[in-house]
Every structure is written in structure tokens, then in C-alpha cells.
Amino acid sequence: MTSAADISDLGCIGECLGLERLDLSYNDITKLHKLAGLSALQNLNLSANRFSSLDGLQSLENLHSLNIAGNLIGSVDSLQCLTGLQNLRELRLKDDSIKLSNPACLHPSYTADIIEMFPSLVLLDGQRVRGQGSELFYICQEMDKELKSFGEVKDIDIPLVKVQHQLTDCWKLPSVVTNTTHNKAEEQLKDLLASCQRLSQKAADKLKEFEKQASQQQN
Fold this sequence. Notes:
Leu-rich_rpt
């Protein structure tokens, strides 16, 4: 455990060949190449440092869990060098609970790209993306997309009409336009709610399925 020690140079750490767990979080590390010889490493925490390249980690063939949240990884392509790590099951580039992330996480397709790049990955950023329980992750993603798509809907087009001057000395759009706008918005909201309801039911069914399986295993 060497976290929060203001380490910037990893020195001769490469000589500690038997290390299986290493926590170097909250330091000032910018280069990782000196970790290349630690082939026995299984769990590595490098969160909250200042590196932008993962060069040096590609030789950690036994690595199972890697935390690099809170660094300067600019794109998903920067992780390409890790695709040969067949034992990697847990990867974290962001941790919303403590507000750590990487610039790469801002890309709209970040999650999908990582999942495609690492076919053996089970946990990404603390969320199960494969195996039992991953269905809920994808259901929540679908629901999130539905909500975002509704939020991105542009102003509803209002047909051009002649604005009439009322006796009350104010300008007012004809009621037919207001009704049309209202109806379109109402239809969009109904579609969104129906979609969320379907996804919610799907999630509930999956939870019941998991509970049933757990009960059967206990018996």
C-alpha cells in the first residue's frame, strides 16, 4: 500500500517481481514503464495520478483488476495496448462516487467501445457488463438512452399562421396551434413513459429470475 505518498518516480519497483497487489493511487505518476516487469500482479490501483499513456502495462499477463480512474487517458484507443491481457476482468476508468474520471469517458460511445475492445471484461466502472446480472446494466442503459433522447427533442414546429389582434390588446396565437403543440408534446411523453414502463417491467422480471435461481441454489 503506497497510495497518497506524492510518488512521481517508481524507482526500482520493477525488481519486486512477486507483487500480486499494488496500490499507487493518489500520487504524481506520469510514466508506467517501470511496472512492466511485475508479471505476477493481479490487482493494480493507479487511480488519481497524471499519466496519459498505459505503456508498460501490456506485459502484466496475470492482471485481473485495473483501476486507472482520475488520470489523463484521452481516448479509448489508448487502451488498445491492453487487449492482450487475457485475464483482465475488472477495469475502471471512472468512479462517479469520488468524482474521478478520464477525458476518454466523455465520448458518447465510450462504454460500448470498451466492451467491444475487451470481450473478456466482466466489470466496467463498477458495473457488471457480462455474466449474470449484466442484463440489468443494459436495461438501465436503454432507459437512459430513452430519457436522453426525449431531453434532446427540439422545440416542436409551430405552423405559420396569421396572428390575430384580440380585443384585449394582446397578441395571441389561435387555439388550434396551441392544441397541436400540446398534442405533439403529450404524444412524445406518452411514448417515453411507455418505453420506460416496458424496460422497468423487463428489469423486474430479471430480478425475479435471479431471486428464483438464488433460492434454488440455496435449496
